[in-house]
Fold these 2 entries.
Entry 1:
Amino acid sequence: MKKIGIVGFGYIGRYIFEHLKQNDEISVEAIWEPIAEKTVGLDQKIICKSLEELGTRPLDLIVEAAHADVVKELWLLITSGADLMISSVTSFSDKKFRDEMEQKAKKSGQKVYLPHGAILGLDGLRDGRALLESVAITTTKHPKNLGMLDSKITKPEVIFKGTTLEACKKFPRNVNVHAAIALAGLGFDNTESVVIADANTNKMQHRIEVKGQGLNWNLEIESFSAGAVTGSYTPASLYNSLLTVLSERNVFQIV
Ligand SMILES: NC(=O)c1ccc[n+]([C@@H]2O[C@H](COP(=O)([O-])OP(=O)(O)OC[C@H]3O[C@@H](n4cnc5c(N)ncnc54)[C@H](O)[C@@H]3O)[C@@H](O)[C@H]2O)c1
């Protein structure tokens, strides 16, 4: 039986928990969620009182589904040796944190998994890395899915154009796919990010344009908006990536 912990019991965390109820090979042994009402009715044995408590519980893998700031804190608090699968990929735009992560992982043997989340193609990008010349990603979402709750935007409007590093600082909850593309491809300084707010869409659209030696790729990925920041495909994608990781099949492993 594999033992897992979940950090953040929102749209993604709850989805994973509910789907694992039917699984007799994986057991959720710990949950850390600061809003207590969200975990009412669950077996109190699995509810942790702090992130630190979750980090000490004997677990095989912890799934982070909370916020980019939590990832950094969590990684350093894990004393149990558990591996980590992260949803909040923008956390890796912080080079100091990436270095700390690698150092700790080298010593402890822990693994950190980068699930493909809302998009596709990370494996192809990583495998073609030596050939890549330019990578750009354009995301179009409704203003409310970009955290712009009082937006007056009526027509589609480019609200950001710059490096993925800057996009992650500006939209830590909304450009996880940009961070994943940067990690797999040319890095945070050399990937171009464009964010468009469109009040007339209920979709989350990502257009990924890659050029390189002997290649020219255009990927268009759309899913329907479901959570505040999450599209309808993402929870299913993360859940199945979790199953893949725990079954020790071939996965995108970053450390
Ligand atoms: N990789 C991807 O493709 C992808 C796609 C969509 C969303 N995401 C990211 O996944 C994460 C979860 O998304 P969601 O839709 O489930 O969000 P959500 O808002 O529904 O849930 C997040 C939960 O985390 C909790 N939380 C906040 N601070 C916390 C902390 N310090 N410790 C523990 N829990 C904390 C919140 O109370 C909330 O219950 C977000 O960071 C989101 O940006 C990633």
Entry 2:
Amino acid sequence: MDFEESEEHQLIRKSVSDLVKQIPESYWREIDQKAEFPQELWRRLAENGWFGVNVPTEYGGAGLGHVECSIVMHEASRSGGSSANILLSPYLAAKALTYYGSKEAKEKFLPDLAKGKLVCCIAVTEPNAGVDTLSITTSAVKQNGEYVVNGQKVWITLAHLADLMILLTRTTPIDKVKRRTQGLSVFLVELKKQRPRIVRIEDVVMRTNSSNEVFFEDLRVPEENLLGQQDNGWEVLTSIFNLERVLTAAMSVGIGELALNKAVRYANERIVFGRPIGQNQGIQFPLAEAKMLLESSWLMVQKAAWLLDKNKIAAFEANAAAFLAARAANLAADRAMQTYGGMAYARDNDVERYWRDARLLRSGPIPEEMTLNFVAANVLRLPKSY
Ligand SMILES: Cc1cc2nc3c(=O)[nH]c(=O)nc-3n(C[C@H](O)[C@H](O)[C@H](O)COP(=O)(O)OP(=O)(O)OC[C@H]3O[C@@H](n4cnc5c(N)ncnc54)[C@H](O)[C@@H]3O)c2cc1C
């Protein structure tokens, strides 16, 4: 066992940190207020090859694994906060394509993914299914060598700007399959070719990565854009769900550290009763607790990412990482708010933004109740409650 990061990992950390830290803090504040895409962050990450981390070398990527992706996500969010979420869907798309894409789809999309030319989104959630993902009804019907898609998705992050969508559909109705996990299929949809109707949601979190409602009316998807086998989409989805949990956990740790570092600086500077407020244990202890919880969450992120790279079962660790890191980030952000006192509520101090963004991570990509349900039923083997 070796807990030391390799020289390569330290170099990745430093390179990403250097290029994100050059962006002034005011930038993140301004784009959050305007709900604007983090173009500057995207440009820097793309120019330096950070979208190609898990793209195989033969398609122009670095051919690295998910440990490396999680380090990039962690470093980018440690400076850029939730804007680092722009890395998430491209990494998921690269994984899905590498494992499940047709030869044509790999050749078509992987090189551009590696160059950072494709904004991506992942479309799973539906208004009438919610966390009961297997109840989705968006359908894909095969006709003359292509699939015709009808239905609706909601909360699809970056769909309004995306070039590529990873789309979950039903290819066999739920009442025609033996198990509810059967009959699903996952597609890559080229959104610039055929555009579904997309309506932006005025959201209050992760505003630089806005979300959308998406309506599909007879949208046509070529056969070669099917990922994996028809009706076997659950396998494709679960393989990227675990990575999604690991990467959002890495982002949670980064956002929590941003909030914590800011709070520590303020606790040292703010003088009340003639001494820094950070001299009071009532201020110190909550910050010390947040530090320990963030560090231990990061260990779980690394373990889960390492398991994924070894192609080992990582469902428990990936879920645990998402749960623990979201909790730790929320604690850190909440305690940063308390440390700042009234000043926490002034936008210019940023902590309210970290607090808002951290809050989402308790509800998505998987709400913590569903993580607890998973661990209770699948790990502890308690009776399934739903
Ligand atoms: C800002 C934002 C961005 C998002 N981005 C994306 C995206 O890019 N792509 C995408 O597909 N989705 C996205 N989502 C959707 C997100 O994953 C879902 O909102 C989330 O999974 C919860 O689904 P729901 O809102 O339908 O909750 P519901 O299914 O309506 O559930 C409501 C609450 O009840 C709880 N609950 C339900 N059933 C049970 C049970 N059996 N036991 C205990 N508790 C239960 C849930 O945990 C939840 O807390 C995003 C959401 C937000 C807010």
